[in-house]
Task: structure prediction
Amino acid sequence: MDYLTKDDLAQIDRIYLQSLEKETVIDLACKLRDFSVALVERLEQDSSNSSKPPSSDSPYGKGNKGNSDSKDDDAKSSLADDKENKATEKPASTESSQSDDSNRSAGRQSGSQGFWRPETPVPESTIPHYPEHCAICGKDLAVPEENRPYMGYYVYELEKTSSAIRIFCTLHHYYAAVCDCGHETKAQPGEGYISHVEGRKKDLKLTEYTMVGPMLATFIAALSVRFRMSRVKIKEFLSYWLSMELSVGTIDKCIREAGVACYPIVEELVEELQDEKIVHLDETPWYEKGCLKWLWVAISNGVAVFCIGTRKKEVLLNLITSAFIGWLVTDGYLAYRSYERRQRCLAHLIRKAIALSGAVDEKAQKMGDWFLRELRGLIKAMADSGEGGKCSLILARLKRACKLGSEEEYSKLRALAREILNDWDAVVAFVKNPELPPTNNDAERALRHAVISRRISFGTRTTEGSMAYAALLSVIETCRLRNRDPWQYIAQTIALGRKGLALCPMPA
Result:
């Protein structure tokens, strides 16, 4: 069937239809109906009824059970929010942690075959741990040489040299000593923060009594978070390349432990963020156990903070508090509108103008070209001169175009014109403040890594997993902005967290 082209549709208006004979109008109406049916059927295609990948599915098409952030909430700000250019996907039903046809819980099932070491580890060294003081009277203790350790465990650790990495094993022995007061004091492995998840049989505890050392745990977290490898692929990588056999459960624990250890660092980064002069903000869809959430980022020249939650303003207030007096660079989402010192991302408006320039309506095409010319000209003028005084003519033409477009019948043209007028001060803020960037590219670039990860992993499964992932992203990206090694710092953070000691500040 031959469908109507854009040029054909541009010639069809009320006057043209009135000039046609009745039979011709009926034939044209039937052709337009067939055209509409084909478009509707194409819009309804997704991964379940076509060869499209799951990553192309709409995030709103999935039932968001237990999620207070609904599609209706986003519809209230649809005119101001430009998210059509972001990748928005939903997880495939076969990959979901809770499929429709099964209530099987995620992870290892009760009664399934376990995973154990095929042979006893061979340690390269033994590290003794002695009690230093009596737990009752505080007297210094001395452990006789003939004493035997009351407990011990093996720890695998990763060592990085100038040209290679290797994994070695260490045996830790813990001793007990009897004080003159008669009390027996035992040396104990360090313990730190305990992450509690409701309904979980065993909570995650930061402790030295573990088989994986801090640097090896950091290496595993790097493979997962930074290099986007699945747990199964990490297991395969460790086995083939480093001759290290670890279960998927242990690998998952290491990743979550690294993120949990970074919780306090994120709190410090949020405090540092309030002192920044310019902060870029953006958000993208995320999934937590199949429910639609949002991954937020607030990034400046030296600080990056990620957060996973709803799309409510309360989440924004956790990132940008009342102590912040700098400038925000954002898109048009209504949650940002309450901040007076704000620069609107012109790249979003330019993309909408490009869409208008390709519209069927001839007047919308011309107005779209006009918007596009003035917005791009404004950015170029500021980039060339760095002074807002030379932009007065461009601003006048842009405002005139918006006023004319706001009265037009074409809905998308009218919406874009009113959107610019209603947010005029934020759109042109960089003209009066040349230090402001005209686009929000920094925040969008920071989210790109997580968007790719979401397509691969379909998000996280628990609140703990979401917080751990966001915390690791925050530390890694902040270290990258400061040109510092994140992995040594994260390994140090895990080691201190397992001992329950205060963490070192982020490297400047």
In short: Residues 6-43 form one domain.
